[in-house]
Amino acid sequence: MNDSEKAELPESPMSRRRALGVAAGLVGGAVLTGTTLDAKTQVPTARVPGAMPAGGAAVVSAPAAPLPVAPPDASMIPGIASGPLSTRSPFEMPALTPVGITTGSSLTPLQHIAGTITPSDLHFQRHHNGIAVIDPHRYALTVHGLVDRPLVFSLEQLKRFPAMTRTCFVECSGNGRSAFRAPKREMTPQQVDGLTSNSEWTGVSVAALLKEAGVQRGATWVLAEGGDAARLSRSVPMDKMLDDAFIAYAQNGEPLRMPNGYPARLLLPGYEGNMCVKWIRRLEAIDQPNMSRDETAKYTDPLANGTARQFSFTMDAKSIITSPAYPTRLMGPGWWPVTGLAWTGRGRIERVDVSTDGGRTWTEAELSNPVLSRAHTRFEHMWKWDGRPAQLMSRAIDETGYVQPTLQTYRDTRGAGTDYHFNAIRTWLVEQDGSVYFGG
Predict the structure, then answer these.
(1) What is the CATH number for 415?
(2) Least crowded by CB within 10 Å, which of 8, 189, 209, 290?
């Protein structure tokens, strides 16, 4: 070893035993104790100062908890042995929130998503009576009703059909309710609009199953029923079922995760998430809507004129800036990327405009390719902040010409009684010290 090599060694070289101890702490106790969820924001508080979060700008975060232990120079000691499953670095701790839910929702941390694909374990969850536990060897999907040949398919039989794969978003129709009804300055993108996720799904076309069963001419709807304890059911127009509906058994290259509908779920690209029935066990061809409780007592929109909007299946064009957003603080004037996600149930996103002055002027943002139909689209606009207070907004325009409405237009059109399909333009307030807060 020459003198220059000696000079490159750390001042306190690690023995192999100490190195293994560090490694164990890194994948063990440090993961449990080194990072915590902030009680108010429900985002990890352990962050490397000045680090680049996924899809966002350099930030100064909330007060940091102790960081996980890492060696001074990882090139000087053996690395950690591989395991049966890869794990995230303990320096990266995205998480769904809240947890422990059997009836309710857990939201995706949109501010920690890079690109457009949502990791399967961070896909939002909406449960009506807990997560169903279903043995794939006993799984069965029944196709019956107005068909010539009622059929029952096992999971393996579904997989014998030609597979189709497509990327599309799923969004709960109640996404954004809290931010609309009770907005708070200290809301993250996750808390504002975290009930949407985007995945690559693989499965079998519903049209192929209906053809196999011989669907009859008089069948104009299909009742889809889930196999969970809620037995959630929704009526789906036959035209949609014969168009692009499919039974998904894989997500992002692996079998569905249990909370996402394992072993199989219905996917209706562009339709509200409640209709994409998880743990799907029955498709019944019928000649009129079933009018089940899940489409009468729920998922209807009372309007200001005393009427109610029902069967508003398609999700409207929408966007949200995910960075900068609360709890980010910009570290001084200069160029900052304004980035976020846009989506529409009507097809492709045509354009996303960004405003930094509260909607007085708009600039077209760059869209990241590929821009897919009924899927999340990433947008970015480089903004030169001058250090003065600013209001950041984004608005999506889809290929039909539909324009995401302002909050006032949304309120005037839909009224205060609406409970679903919230898609008004969101505002983020940048204060003079660089702090960013939700502005409604």
Answers:
(1) 2.60.40.650
(2) 8
CA atoms within a 13 Å half-sphere pointing along the CA-CB vector of 14: 18
CB 145 within 8 A of CB 219: yes
For 17-30, b/e burial (b = at least 16 CB within 10 A) is: eebeebbebbeeeb
413 membership: H or E segment, kind and range: helix 407-414
Domain range spanning residue 48? 1-93
Does residue 242 contact residue 260 with C-beta atoms inside 8 Å?
A: no
Residue 19 has φ and ψ, to the nearest 5°, of -60, -45
Beta-ladder partners of 169: 198
Backbone angles phi, psi at 411, to 5 degrees: -65, -40
SS3 341: strand
Looking at the structure, do residues 77 and 155 belong to the same domain, yes or no?
A: no
CA distances from 15 to 2, 11, 18, 22, 79 (A): 21, 13, 5, 11, 13
> What CA–CA distance (Å, rounded) separates 52 from 58?
5
Number of Cβ within a 10 Å radius of residue 267: 26
**3-class SS at 292?**
coil
Mean pLDDT for back-to-back runs of 10 residues, the chain (440 residues): 36 36 35 37 36 37 64 93 93 94 96 98 96 98 98 98 98 96 97 98 98 98 97 97 98 98 98 98 97 86 83 96 98 98 98 98 97 98 98 98 96 85 97 97
